[in-house]
Amino acid sequence: RAITAPTDAAVPTPDPDDGVAPSKRDARHPPVFYPNTKQGTADEPAPSGIARFQRDNPIGKELRGLKAAGVDLVFDFVGNFAANPIGGIRQGSAESHWVSTAADIDLEKLIGLSDTKIHIQGAWFSGDSLGRDSIGNSISFQQTWRPVAGPRLTQFNIEHDFGKLNILVGRAAVNSYFNNSPFNCVFMSNTSCLTAYGGISDIGITAFPNSSWTAKARYAIDKRWYVQTGVFEYDNNLNLKGKGGLDFSLGKGTGVLIANEVGYQTTFADERLPRRYKAGVYINTDGGQSPYYDRNGASAVVSGLPRVAQEGNRVGLYAMADQTIQRAAGKSTRNLALFGRVFYNVGNVAQLDWFASAGFVKTGTFKHRDVDTIGFLVSNTHFSNQQINYLRDLRAKAGGTGSPKSNEIIGEINYGFAAMPGVRILPNIQYVINPDPIFAPTRKTDIPSAIVLGLRLDVRFAQVFGG
Fold first, then answer.
1. Can you spell out the DSSP letters for 147-174?
2. Boundaries of domain holding 379
3. Has residue 258 got a pLDDT over 50?
4. Does the model's pTM come out above 0.85?
């Protein structure tokens, strides 16, 4: 699995997609966070009533039977609610959610085709954005909100393992495989979940639920080191309303997305304080459009002409680190881990120059709450001069003066409550300093900094029923 539900713990444990030999699983599930050790599967200690229900209910029995036969089914719900009692353009609230279903089909169990799996996933998105509607900024406080609502086929691919080499071909998203960590979706802010900010806005990487044709190869150098590369068709029209992920045309895109990554990671089985380090590069041969200029080299706001398409490539470098720094005695997985993320644009001028974030995840909180989490995150999104000048000209056109700030700082603190196997509740507080006015183009003055109160609910029904 990659940027989907963390499968082991809210520590830098390896993800099978990350090339840890002998990885044979690269299944896509939706990005629901479960940062705790195999949270609540049917064979783990749980209150007797829940364990008995998981063992005896007919849905769980059917799911386990299908899984044993080679078909692993998933059905998830993730909902976000956010409100800004202070700051922004106005006070308001918004709710957004998705439901997702997926099937991982083991062809070795079904038809004897060894080390080969098919992954299929679809999702339905609905709801509104607090950031756009009440605050006016472009960075969402709700990781479930998408600009295009409705159903979408998010994944349809086949993978085969040749030992250390894993090959995947089909429809997939860049951020399902590159620059991801189980820590990312321990948060509700879109600066972290699903992927550290920057790659989507600057490079145009495909991101859940949007996908395109891809071929990806991953090589496990040893148990800890891996390298991987992926080539993805870039066709932004596939993301339009009404497409639903069902346009399978090939060769109609405007460019090619290339992602390369090297990583090192360990688990609790390898060392007492496990870690995860990754570094990579995104390349998009579609150069994107200028954030400021029209085809005549003048301000697009002043001229009223569209912003000009750029020649050359969009290129971004990224790096991330997860490091466990403290762990309870013995075999306990209660721990404290630090993390950091950075993105830097080195290609065509785009919306951002760079992005950075850092924080911690504490797994195991109060007595008998070994899998609850406390998460803290702070991030800085630095907009390019061209983007700021474009927003300045929009403000002047509306009758205002001055320019928006270049640095947008967003923080989040949350508590992840494991209510029962498969169910997590995440109350959170987010704070944004210098909200960008990208979705408030007629704003004449700076948008006031805002406090956002959030609540996230994750339900993994297969886990609830003991599948």
1. SS-EEEEEEEEEEEEETTEEEEEEEE-G
2. 16-464
3. yes
4. yes
